[in-house]
Amino acid sequence: MDHKTNDEPPFVTTLAHAAADPFRLLVEAVKDYGIFMLDPAGNVSSWNPGAEQIHGYKAEEIIGQHVSCFYTAEDVAAGTPQRGLQIALEVGRFEEEGLRLRKGGATFWAIVTITEIHDSFGQHIGFANVTRDITERKQAEDLLRASEERLRLLVEGVQDYAIIMLDPTGKVATWNQAAERLTGYQAKEIIGQHFACLSTADDVASGLPERILQQAVAQGRYEEEGWRARNDGSRFWANVVITALVDAAGTHTPTGGSSGQVRGGRLAGAERRLEVLGERGHHRPVGCRRNAAGLRQCLPRPDPA
What we know:
The protein is of the alpha+beta class. It folds into three domains: 15-138, PAS domain (Beta-Lactamase, 2-Layer Sandwich), CATH 3.30.450; 158-264, 2-Layer Sandwich (Beta-Lactamase); 269-298, no CATH class. It has helices at 15-20, 22-29, 49-55, 59-62, 73-77, 80-91, 135-157, 177-183, 187-190, 201-205, 208-219, 266-281, 286-298; strands spanning 33-38, 93-101, 107-118, 124-133, 162-166, 172-174, 221-229, 235-244, 258-264. The strands form two sheets. It has a five-stranded antiparallel sheet with strand order 6-5-9-8-7. A hairpin with a 5-residue loop joins β7 (221-229) and β8. α12 runs antiparallel to α13. It is elongated and about 75 Å long.
């Protein structure tokens, strides 16, 4: 007569057992998640193929071992494994993202959820542990953050151009140092404000800022030279380029917005060159002085402010 023993790993089963227990079959089929049980003391009492794939241990190697073997030495010394079990016991669930160990000592990033398990009488019988390897996602996030930081440093390093981001409604989302120097607005003053505050009152009244955004979205890009307003109300002549930002599908989305580049000081430079030419004209024939005066008439009228 055959006797059934209790030393069979709960999730290492025959097809007949799996067929009799659909939940067991489901857990066995999961490969992307390590799903296993812990007894009340935190020792591994079951093991599924996903756990073997993630951690590298076979069921016969790991069952009976304490869950702390999946934690780094620093976390073990800090009492992290026991603290996670205690929180799960007290509130029913514990979740965290952090480093875990594979067999052999290699580390990986994981999201771990530990849930307290009790029987039909309410008696605590252990914990369910679900582990997901998120190493690739974490690496991609780190690469993205590094890329964004490089871009930020690049934009901050630009001295001659105000480079800003606008959301799809035209509100300022980012602000670089050149923008502050050119317009007089600090980031904390301007972020969240509509970029129309950088336009003159006449341009705002005529609806120019909205037309600029519409054209940038429709054509992908807008460029002009014209007056812009500083924080103190003074004006400056600027070259402005606004480019619509789109997602991978080519859609102008709420996370896209527009980027703007503003370069000022061109009029001042032209005026100074004409002043120099005019000054030199006093020592040159009258015709040369007339040329300087004529060129000055071609420039936009200076700011009355």
